[in-house]
Amino acid sequence: MSPDAGTSVKAPSLRRLTLLLGGLAMFGPFSIDTIFPAFAVMGTELNADKLQMQQTISVYLAAYALMSIVHGPLSDAIGRRKVIIGGLTVFTLASAACALSTDLPTLLFCRAIQGLSAGVGLIVGRAVIRDLLHGDDAQRLMSQVMMVFGIAPAIAPIIGEWILGRAHWPAIFWFLVAFSVLLLASVIFLLPETHPPQARLALKPKRLLRDYVAIFLNPRFQRLTAVGAFNFGALFLYIASAPAFVYDLLKVESLAWFFVPTIGGMVLGSFVSGRAAGKISGDRLVNFGFGFCALALAINLGYNLWTDTPQVPWAVLPMCIGAFGIALVFPIVTLSILDMYPHQRGSASSLQAFAGLVVNALMAGAISPLLSDSALHLAIAASVLTAVAWGFWRWEAWVSKAACARIPEDAVVVEPQDSI
Asked: Nearest CA to 301 among 376, 369, 251?
């Protein structure tokens, strides 16, 4: 248990906690990826073209990003369980409303409500991990949760295709209703409150704004958040472009050709990250991760410059390698951010998620529609995003090295209890 938790919390077994927190992290991606196979059918019924259907993703992500700045501090003030249970309840009702929608404006409104509630699992779940564990143990659990989370984008479109082959498209949203009800019951009966009353902060708007400004203006927070957001953004660009990339460019009939190898790489990377905890330093692991990302970019650019007709498996191999590298980077960056603010983990997690979601919403709503007609254009954009992330990581490494060089060898360093 984390030494700064403030009280003794009887946690579920590590395996149960991994499955529960992984499931909570999954229902957000499920909301995006299960409907991909139904885009064409939904567009025909709702009189919407491809660009309009793409807005079902960007509206969802924009709402997700907007509410993400509230989930964390709300959980710091009233506890983790209440926020998760409330979010799951709203998500369940919104998913049912999506299933009953008969026109695009109604569907977009219901998707926005889904987005407002979907972030509780991922954002508050990160704070739960750090409430209970620290150091290498936290890295292991974070990596294991990412393994479960990483399965979601791989199986979600396959589930969507399977449902669409046997029922009408609203059945996909009824599946989301059933999944969220299952998670809701699991949280109620299995997840303890990890943020006790004596450790909570008053929910005062002025203090919340002050804390957010202080976190956001912290240069180290900015650098680490940029590393995670832009590095994952390179992969999310392909996820947002998946229907066009798979159906139009690769000319294959199943999204599994893209998602299975890609998420397979992420799951494998998360497994390696967990096994490496305590054996390889976080900085070295991040450098290894970026090395794999660079290899993926080289293969991706080289292949798309060489051919005008990308085909499987070569067109998706770089995504698998890149996802492996991203999974090595992300847990280290996230835990570093949470450790900066031991008394405001919810707020730090929220602000990190908000930054990442803004990048993802930009990818889905603006960049993807402009570039998804060309595999080469997607490869170039992904390369730029990864290069930006690497630049921020090198900047952080340089600043850290310079700060260490300024500390006298005989100085006694006292770790602060709160970075704000």
From this structure: 376
